[in-house]
Specification:
single chain; 338 residues; alpha+beta; DNA Primase, Chain A; Dna Topoisomerase Vi A Subunit, Chain: A, domain 2; 3 domains; 15 strands; globular; DNA binding
Amino acid sequence: MNYSEVKQAAARIKQEFPVLDYFHSLVRSGFLKFEGIHGKEYFFGFLEQRTGSIAVDDKANVWYDHAAGKGGDVIAAVQEFENKTFFESVESLSGTVPVREFLPRQKPEIGPKIVVEKVSEISHDALIQYIRGRGIDLQDIAPFGKEVHWRNKGKRYFAVGFPNESGGWVLRSSIFKGNILGGGTSIRILGTVKGIKVFEGWFDFLSYLKLSRATDFKAIILNSTANLSFRLILDVLEECEVVDLYLDNDVTGEKCTINFIRVAQLFRYCLQKGSPTDWDLEALRGSRDKIGILLSNMKIIPSEAMEIWKIQTNVSDQRCHFSGFEDVNAFLVGGVHK
């Protein structure tokens, strides 16, 4: 790319590439943890931080690290977190290099690699009290969770740990929420699979088990809604169209639920029409309106799209069962079924 091309690409990237998507990719890589939404901003933090300091304004499409006193657009984020030059960042985001998950190169000051020192059955009083405070009995969590002790930058920590599909640990305690050794989803198979159930977090999954005593399903625990990618949704639909969604009763949960159902409707539409469902997901990279681009690529006009959104699928929104509560775990703790 010459200078003129770089300038044009940079202008397009700043306008079209969502900063929020980039920070969620850093969560998936295990480099950052997602702290949640406060007001109109999404907060992220490094694993060793108790409270995340990086705020992302999705509407303005900018980020700011309150601890470091720096921020900017998505190009500035790649420069900061992947240690790239401006030219390298633009080239990477413009898709002129092979598409890949963002793998940030940690800087020396971040410290040595996190070391897991012990994994055992849960026995620490503080963790037992934390689990009980979430409405879960120790015997119910035992088949899934462990007590994980790890060391980071010379300091030792411990928490309840759940394994994820990347070989890392999802860690939870009264003072810590994050991942170590890689992020990603967790999957559990119970009995003979007759459907798939999708949960945001492990305690939602455990709460559902306690409330329903259900078996014979595959559970996908997202561990973060950032992990609910188009690729994951398609993989689920290709495997089994009977899907129950137990996402949170908040703005993000609503958005993810609607998005999942719409992808399922478009998937069913393509099957009915005999159209291919191996969609070009690379073409959606960095887009805010992925479904809109898919419709455009398929040459589906607005009136036809309105009919697609009426198609009945076997993907169901289960949030009505814990209406008035933030999530399944809050419903359990609220004492509705005690």
